Amino acid sequence: MQVQVWSDVVCPWCYIGRRRLERALERFEHAGEVEVLWRSFQLDPSFPRGVSQPVYDALAQKMGASVEQVRAMTEQVTRVAAQEGLEYRFESGVMVNTFDVHRLLHLARERGLGGWAHECFMRAQLVLGRDLSQARTLVEVAAQAGLEEGEVRRVLEGRDYAQDVREDIDAARRLGAGGVPFFVIDETVAFSGAQPVEVLVAALDKAHRAGRG
Fold it and tell me: Where does the record place the DSBA-like thioredoxin domain (predicted)?
């Protein structure tokens, strides 16, 4: 079985969705047959590359709301994340364009490190408040994920994997993704959102039964 998950590292619900998927797989009796493939998506591709902005300010500007309103809205997400063992720190976080992060995640996938690199970059963005608009930060996080620093710098200085990122995003749109996280299980079950663990287990069961005819 293959579980494809489209996500963006600036998406707090995507990290929550990852944790819930992990818990669902712990309860799924055929988990040993499951391959999880993390795919690229950008929540805001128009955000300037190489620039960072405090999360509250960026969301307030995008939503036409006050910083106080945004702070109140993110409190609920913070509480939900805490239930999954994630300690979000929006007050110190920054919004960035994630295109280069996704290019590095494709490199990591080729090196057999896709899942771990996805975890490292999600944590860097949402928990640690690292500035992923900076090349040196991207190199540090990628190195922590096990990638070779020289190779990471070469990718960042060129255009490697740019088309792969675009193809992932196009694929999500063709499949009707209305947002992320977006899950496709064995190309038979598809849904959006950080669904409860019970829903994920049921979806895994359904796809497994369909696969067995």
Answer: 2-204
Domain that holds residue 108: 2-211
For residue 6, give the CATH number of its domain. 3.40.30.10
pLDDT attached to residue 211: 82
Buried b (16+ CB within 10 A) or exposed e, 122-139: bbbbbeebbebbeeeebb
pLDDT at residue 161, rounded to an integer: 98
Which residue bears the tokens 């969705």?
17
